[in-house]
Design goal:
globular, two-stranded antiparallel sheet, single chain, 7 strands, alpha/beta
Length: 144
């Protein structure tokens, strides 16, 4: 693995090296079935209320800014504050690419975010996460 030389030289060194997520990405290349199993395992921990250590340190945050995120799954979730994918799947910073929208209604902007996650971040699983007692769904069911 490694970046590909763009061919341009400055002071005897490559002017730019074209790096992709493939060059440093491990989690993003998790197959969809393995990503789904990771989500299920995390949810089992959540349901059992077992402890889970997450790295929320300034160093982890700096690493994400410097090296980018490497999510293993893309989750479309309701904007409802009671439904937090990172909590219910017991994941840490940079592990999920979460798109939150009221009622899980996927329009052009949300779809563009999914495409970004799959094409640029190389996630192989897109999960639509619904929940009970969704106010938006209840509201829309009452509209004619």
């Amino acid at each position: 693995m490694g970046g590909e030389d763009t061919g341009k030289m400055v002071a005897g060194r490559p002017a730019a090296v074209a790096y992709t997520a493939d060059d440093y990405d491990v989690d993003a290349h998790v197959p969809a079935a393995a990503a789904l199993e990771r989500l299920r395992a995390g949810n089992r921990i959540y349901v059992k209320a077992l402890d889970h250590e997450r790295d929320l340190s300034p160093e982890r945050i700096a690493d994400l800014f410097e090296n980018g995120q490497r999510p293993f799954a893309c989750v479309i979730a309701c904007a409802d504050s009671r439904v937090v994918p990172e909590h219910i799947f017991m994941t840490g910073l940079g592990e999920l690419f979460v798109i939150r929208v009221a009622g899980n209604i996927v329009g052009p902007i949300e779809l563009a975010s999914v495409v970004y996650a799959c094409e640029h971040l190389h996630t192989r699983l897109v999960l639509v996460l619904g929940h009970t007692h969704c106010g938006v769904v209840d509201f829309l069911e009452g509209c004619d």
